[in-house]
Each structure stands twice: as structure tokens, then as C-alpha cells.
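Quick one:
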Amino acid sequence: MDLAKLTSPAAAALPADTPVVIPVAALEQHGQHLPLFTDSMLLGDVVRRVSGELAHEVLFAPLMWLGNSDHHMEFSGTLSAEPRLYLDLLNGLAENFVRHGFRRIVFLNGHGGNDVPGRQAVFELRQRHREREDLLFLFATYWNLGSQPVSGFHQAEMGHACEWETSMMLRIAPELVGDFAAAAPVDPGSPFLPAARGWITRERTQSGHIGSPHLATVEKGEALLKRFAADAVCFLRRVIAWDGRSWNG
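Output:
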């Protein structure tokens, strides 16, 4: 169900246990070869595929395109909500749905920079409603929901404007993809693991991409999108099946 296309009475008539999915992404630099709206476009395609499977079981809010992208601000075109502002925005969106009676709120994320404030937001939401045992607040990033591509891929995880993202963009909007074949690989690197290091993008890459975009193909893009959508469907079926009270999903 598409919230934007419902009337207010139709939204009010939905069962309280209908899962609400709030897609969140970004508008930010994606190297020299991908458009600024890459994260939002890719998440939008995943949501389109998922909603086709769960059209009558899940309520989908419009995609929230403004993300926490402060680490990319040295690159022109990036738009960002600062971390605390972004955290408050997510809190407020969830509170709107709780006020309207919904009990299962899922943020489906398509941008790595949203992850830390997103996790903090669902933590804060649960603390504010600690007397309620019937509420479920979740924040999930679509490429971390289950299976991962192995065969035929150089990268083992998501980068930025990388083999994965470039492949998916080649699948959904090839006319917007620039000269990815000329993009030299950029090693993601994390020399201080297992510590989490604060960073900004220009420390890690001058070109704006991280990973191996030159290895992208349309076929890889379809394989990724198909897999990620299937993972999201499985995840949301777990939300639908939750008994409304227990810790275990």
C-alpha cells in the first residue's frame, strides 16, 4: 500500500499491526560517474520490487531523500541534514505514525551515512515508549539484510559509487552513468579496526568513489537488486509475523 495514494479515512482504517516502511536515503556525490540521487534511486527500485510482493500487507511511506551526508560536503551538489537534525527527523516521522495508531515502524535505509543516527533514533524511540510492549521500532539497511553476492563479484561488501552501486545504476538508469570503466579502484581500508574511526570522505578518496566501479555490469546490477529485494521481503515477512509482544522476531 502506498501511503501517498491513500485518503485519510483509508489510512485510518488500516489495522494497527500493519507494518509501516519509511524508506530513507540521500542526495550526495557519487564520484565522477554516478548521479547525486544514486542512493535514493537504488532504494526506490528495491522498494518498488518489494511493494510488488507485499502490496496488501505493508504500508509504504514516500521515500525520504534527505539524509545524513555531512562527510561528503567537500563535494559539490551534496545536500545533508546534520546528524542531530537527521536523528530528530527520524524520531518525528516515527512518532507521527505512532500517534496515528501504528505499532510496527521500519526504517528501510539506502545510505551508509544514515546508519548511526538511524540506530540511535530507534533506540531513543523505544526509551520514550518503554511502557508499551506492543511497539516495534526497526532500522535496517537493504544490503545488510541477508545473503551477500559471492560468485562473479570482486567486492565483498558495499562501497561507494563502487562495483555494486555502479552495476545497479547500469541496470536501472544506464543513461545517467558516466565513464565508470576509467575509474581506478580505491581500496576502502580501515587501518584502525576494530575501532570505529570518525572520517570524512576526502580523507579516503579524492575522486569520490570507494571500491571498484570499473568492474560493474548490468548483469551484476540485476543480480544485486533481485537479491536485495528478496532479502527485504523475507525481513518484512518476519515483521508481519511478529506476535506483537515477544523479544524474538
